Amino acid sequence: MSEALRAQVFLNGLSSSFEAQVGAVGAFLAGRQEIKVISYVTLVRTFEESPKLGRYFGPCQERVWLKADYFQPERLLEHIKSYEGDLALFPPGLFGAQMAGRLAARLKGSAVLNLIELEVGARLLAKKYVYSENLLASLALKKKPYCLALSKEWSAKGHEILWQEKFTGSERWLELEPDGLDPDALGPDGLGPDGGRPEEVRASGLDLAKAQALVVSGFGLGDPATLARAIELAQRLSAEWGVSRPVAMNAWAPLERLIGVSGAMTAPKWALCLGASGAAALLSGLSQAQKLIAVNLDPEAPIMSRSDLAVVGQAQEIIEALNKLLA
């Protein structure tokens, strides 16, 4: 790869972990001549914070400050949907994982979460731990933009970086339109709606692990509208709901709802899986379920042989029939 990768760095200045974010990003970028940072895009509560936060940024062409009371993923995506860079870099944590997956899905690029290392050569190889961190995988990235969220290990490598050189690029100050959520109800990281309501975050991994009943939706549901009907079904059954990795990676649901080795490891009394083929990662997250029910069009799908009750059929039709019956 002869030309440098043009990168845009996204940071959450609403978070109490901001210094850890920039430390991780700084550690990752240190000495990487093959990556040229075009701009830093940072969420802030007030524009007055920009001079203080800007001390942490390395050389770039532009700084963009987005004023917001809380983290709004969809509003932020609207600002960056025309992004034309090669690489979108996000810090470790919930903000980075949310945005890297959603941006890649929106722009049909490549997403890698919990990035351990990036090798730039004839091919672009991203390294991350898989299978409960028992294996280090190398993933060849082919579709731009490459949306990367760093592993928390980079936070440990990072240190407080104060850039002494004078910034000579351009700056922009923009304001995200609020959507009516009470800022006083938000958590310390400014987490807001559509993938960030405080109650959603608190009820994610820990509560899903304690769920007594669970409805799990897979990519076989076909679209977010059907997922919404599956969520209604879960509510009617007094169950929690979760999703498989393809559903989360395509931004149909927040990552806090992910079931499996990268999400919640559950042990419900029963779990109903709709339109999920049963990848090893998902089945690991459901291995402690007392009863497992699966609905899939493919009778040979891995989840069917692992289930106590396997129904060969269209998940959408069964969701609608159950909703009608329970209503």
What is the gyration radius calculated from CA atoms? 21 Å
Distance between the termini: 58 Å
Instruction: Tell me, rounded to a whole number, the average pLDDT.
Output: 83
Shape summary: elongated
CATH class of the largest domain: Alpha Beta
The percent range for strand residues is 25-35%
The H/E string reads EHEHEHEHEEEEEHEHHEHEHEHEHEH
Oligomer kind: single chain
Please, how many domains? 2
> How many beta-strand runs?
15
Indicate the CATH architecture of the largest domain. Answer: 3-Layer(aba) Sandwich
CATH topology type of the largest domain: Rossmann fold
In the predicted model, the low-confidence regions spanning at least 5 consecutive residues are 181-206
Number of helices: 12
How would you name the CATH homologous superfamily of the largest domain? HUPs
Largest sheet: 7 strands, parallel
Strand order of the largest sheet: 5-9-4-1-2-3-10
Structural class: alpha/beta
Measured as a percent range, the helix fraction is 25-40%
List the helices and strands and how they pair.
Layout: E1 5-12, H1 18-29, E2 35-44, H2 50-54, E3 62-67, H3 73-80, E4 87-90, H4 94-107, E5 110-115, E6 117-120, E7 124-130, E8 135-141, E9 146-150, H5 153-157, E10 170-175, H6 198-202, H7 205-210, E11 213-217, H8 224-236, E12 240-243, H9 245-249, E13 270-274, H10 280-285, E14 291-296, H11 302-306, E15 309-312, H12 315-326
Parallel strand pairs: 1-2, 1-4, 2-3, 3-10, 4-9, 5-9, 11-12, 11-13, 13-14, 14-15
Antiparallel strand pairs: 6-7, 7-8
